[in-house]
Amino acid sequence: MIVATRKPLAEIRKLLGPSRKILIIGCGACAAECAAGGPDEVAALAAELLSSCAMDGLEPVVREACVDRQCVHQFLPVLAEDVDWCETVLSLGCGAGVQSLVRFYPQTYVVPGLNTQFVGSTLAGGVWTEDCAGCGNCGLALFGGICPVTRCAKRLLNGPCGGSAKGKCEVNPDIDCAWQLIYDRLSALGQLDRLKTVIPPKDWATSLSGGPRTIVRGEGGL
Fold it and tell me: pTM for this structure?
């Protein structure tokens, strides 16, 4: 899932500028799962925004909306009436959701209310961890299902750096050394021979370094 956190209210107000008619749009998928942009967070931000503006003698009108997924165009037409009404859309979706709204409603000013952080997993209620960098060429099978591109601070592909201590990362001692985790995992699986494979330098052309990526699949393609 995409994990995001809400921007500070002061930054949001600055982004909204003098807008008097504001539409806050949440996302019922990832943003809701990470408690950053679901219906409850939309309502809370609307109340907080109105209260903050009132203290400065301002009285904007705020509408609230939420769609199942901001990043899927098929869910966006239901917003048309509210989007036509507003001066500014405040998106509580990830960066992809913001840009989907911009593509679908190109004449509307859209600002982000969230900071998109990473692709991650839910460890427990209110706890998310970064797992995937979306590099476009997954090698998890080589590393026991633990990604050194994301979880090693140095992105090393052929073993540890030698600077870790007691299973902790040299760069950030608060996190586990990814290569210690990889070793322990492969050892438990009886697959330590995998570490004898020399991994060539990673071809980053499959990642964002090659520019924005587009995938077209079957009849649903553009």
Answer: 0.88
